[in-house]
């Protein structure tokens, strides 16, 4: 039966949900407070990453955060501030960072990543969005030190045991795979299972496709309030009007916790700010790479090379910390010594907020309090990869179909 469905948020998660819900015959409205040209879904590194099997909440992360806390140029930064929501979230993050919880999360993260990778491929084959970059070159983890190598080798072993394609490259092999740029690294672990894309190419194409097939997209319209009755969401009140709805999907990224609070629901989330610099000239870089000791990502996208990184917990804002931008440019030069990122390129840096749950797993599924409310958020560092899978799962949940995978680990009502 066709339903009237409102989706709050037009990032990759909201748009992917609209994509699959529309295909099931529903009348879908996406509402976004921005004009859908910026934020996490535009500034990300574009990786589709089955290799990212270890959640952010893993042993040692809090200690690292505390150590780096007072250095705002560091790649992992928690701004010291009095914020009880943040303290609660940090405590839950700490409790989730155990070996046992990480081991339980790894196969689930891999499964949803593989499902999503397959769906990216299906979307491409359908030609719904026309042509777009979806490259299967894999991802290099470039290292300089034995420490970094040992760390990644342990992850690679786990990935290999789970059936993911991983290999190792020494200096000579690196030169062969990346012949047009000088690299200062001892070698790389090559996750051949990973793919990459250009988000600023896919997002507008997806938006246009959705409009063409009848999805209503409301931009520059902020959801301010949600009216409920009898354990059901009834009406969405925005800055410009109101919408009656049969079903509501909450896909508002890092702002989802705030909206959930209006419904008296707890959704533990913090915005993890990341930065990107685009270099729109030939850098010679042909392979996506994570520069391990610089803790940053490099992606050859359509029309530019992107340098991205940082996980900064300093509240939901787009403020650009200049020292962080400088650190990203310097981090790139440590690995690509001939690459000089210009002042102009640094000045056009942008940020986005990753919606980070305390255990590194997304929230996908129905609210236990409101029967017609579905959550689709909390994807942290994997939201780009997991867009299509989340969209498909959301449509299956709303249509009460058997889901493509077991989603109990993503239960939005879970306690920490
Ligand atoms: C630097 C960086 C690099 C990254 N690299 C990768 C990567 O390589 N691979 C990967 O998988 N992931 C990556 N990520 C993570 C990924 O980008 C995010 O997880 C993902 O974009 C989140 O998508 P979203 O749709 O949930 O949120 P968003 O893209 O933030 O969208 C949420 C939308 O909700 C809207 N909204 C919020 N509140 C309201 C309201 N009240 N009313 C109306 N609208 C509202 C916002 O305007 C926004 O457009 C990276 C992130 C960053 C920052």
Description:
The protein has 416 residues and is an alpha/beta fold. The chain has one domain: FAD/NAD(P)-binding domain (3-Layer(bba) Sandwich). Helix content is 34%, strand content 25%. Strands 4, 6, 7, 8, 15, 16, 17, 18 and 19 form a nine-stranded mixed sheet that branches. The model has no long low-confidence stretch (mean pLDDT 95). The site of flavin-adenine dinucleotide (FAD) has 44 residues, from helix 1, helix 2, strand 15 and strand 19.
Instruction: Report the CATH architecture.
Output: 3-Layer(bba) Sandwich
List the total number of helices: 12
Q: Outline the low-pLDDT stretches.
A: none
CATH superfamily: FAD/NAD(P)-binding domain
Q: Indicate how many domains the architecture comprises.
A: 1
Biggest sheet character? 9 strands, mixed
What CATH calls the topology is: FAD/NAD(P)-binding domain
Tell me how many strands there are. 21
Radius of gyration using CA atoms only:
21 Å
Instruction: Give the percentage of residues in beta strands.
Output: 25-35%
